[in-house]
Amino acid sequence: MRSIMAALLAALVLPGAATLAQSGPMALPVKATPVIQDTVTTEITALGTVHADEAIIVRPEIAGRVQTIHFQEGQLVNKNDPLFTLDPAEYKAQLDGSAAQSRLEQLNFERAQTLYSRQLTSRQNLDEAQARLDAARAGQSKDQVRLDKTVIRAPFSGVVGLRQVSPGAYVSPGEDLTTLGSIGTVKLDFQVPEIYLSKIKVGQPLTIGVDAYPGRTFPGTVYAIDSGIDEETRTIRLRARAPNPDNLLRAGMFARVALILEKRDRALLVPEQAIVPQGQKAFVFRVVDNKAVLTPVTLGQRRPGQVEVTAGLNPKDLVVTDGQIKLRDGMPVQVLPPAAPAKAEK
Fold first, then answer.
1. Which has the least CB within 10 A, 97, 250, 306, 338?
2. What is the fold of 62-86+152-176?
3. What three-state secondary structure class fits 92?
4. Which residues touch 343 (CB under 8 Å, ≥6 apart)?
5. Above 80 in pLDDT, residue 64?
């Protein structure tokens, strides 16, 4: 009797057990996202100072009284525009005198030539007349130069600073009158650690940020690298140039620099939560034929929310982003559809 009951129970239980064995373990629901491609940059940050592309202190080369000031402080001027005019009366009188002397020596030379052609004077007298004429002409040229210097002109286009003198003031050679800075393009000096020396080069792009314009950046390019390393800081000095068409950047500004060392246009990126660290190595779970495949990866540049993968993945791979804790290599998975965006309340 007992054997008959056991046979009946086996007949009832075994078919269900066979069905479970055939169906296998249930698929684990997970969230997954495809690998994306995007541009990735490798950069270093530094602090720097903005300088005018060209900057001078305007000083007179001769003494004189300021007759006219031709600009307003802070005004944009063009190359060769007059900035100051000194009283030219004294220098004009000197030029008139040297011009008269030059004309007299010209007449004396012509007479000496006539006498020499008639053999009525010596060659020495003719040469002396020529020398006096040359000296008179040189004196006239010198006085003309001095007269021209009574008008002080801008050597390049730029913005004039605050003036240090007023009309009527007597100025001496070398006295400070004002400043002139060319800021249509600005220079930027900054330093980077020497360990980056092999990665920096002329022509590298960078971006500039200043406190005066938060959230805004200005593009620039490295155009010069210093010849030596600073022994105290072990840094190398770089100089960049940046266009400044709106004159927003001013000399002396404190700047934050982001120097782009490398740019990769088709880099592979995955969400940070897709990375599964195991010891010193990194892995991701790829979804292949509805199964989770544990895949080792090599990581590159990081940016907010994303990590670059330099080896181990292909552009069309699908990686698990949620549910990895319970996953094991080879386990069946079911990728959940993305959540529908929440509807705005009316």
1. 338
2. OB fold (Dihydrolipoamide Acetyltransferase, E2P) (2.40.50)
3. helix
4. none
5. yes
Q: Angle at CA 78, nearest 5°, toward 73 and 80?
A: 105
Within 13 Å of residue 132, how many CA atoms lie on the same side as its CB?
16
What Rg, from alpha-carbon coordinates, does the chain have?
42
Question: How many CA atoms, within 13 angstroms, populate the side-chain half-sphere of residue 224?
Answer: 11
Going by C-alpha positions, the residue among 281, 283, 211 that lies closest to residue 248 is 211
Per residue in 134-191, pLDDT (tens digit) is 999 999 999 999 999 999 999 999 999 999 999 999 999 999 999 999 988 999 999 9
Q: At what angle do helices 123-148 and 89-117 cross, to 10 degrees?
A: 160
How many whole angstroms separate alpha carbon 271 and alpha carbon 36? 9
Q: How many other β-carbons are positioned within 10 Å of the β-carbon of residue 32?
A: 21
Residue 108 has pLDDT above 70, yes or no: yes
| pTM reported for the whole predicted model | 0.66
Taking the C-alpha atoms of residue 158 and residue 75, their distance in angstroms, rounded to an integer, is 8
d(C-alpha 138, C-alpha 257), whole Å: 54
Which pair of tokens denotes residue 142? 């010198």
What dihedral angle (degrees, nearest 10) is formed by the CA atoms of 135, 141, 146, 151?
180
Q: Which CATH number fits domain 45-53+183-264: 3.90.1150.10, 2.30.40.10, 3.40.50.300, 2.40.30.170?
A: 2.40.30.170
Q: Cβ neighbours of residue 276 under 8 Å, at least 6 residues apart?
A: 282, 283, 284, 285, 294, 324
Buried-exposed string 268-288: b where 16+ CB fall within 10 A, e elsewhere? bbbbeebbbeeeeebbbbbbe
Which of 1.10.10.10, 1.10.150.170, 2.60.120.620, 1.10.287.470 is the CATH number of 88-149? 1.10.287.470
Domain 28-41+265-335 grouped into CATH 3.90.650.10: no
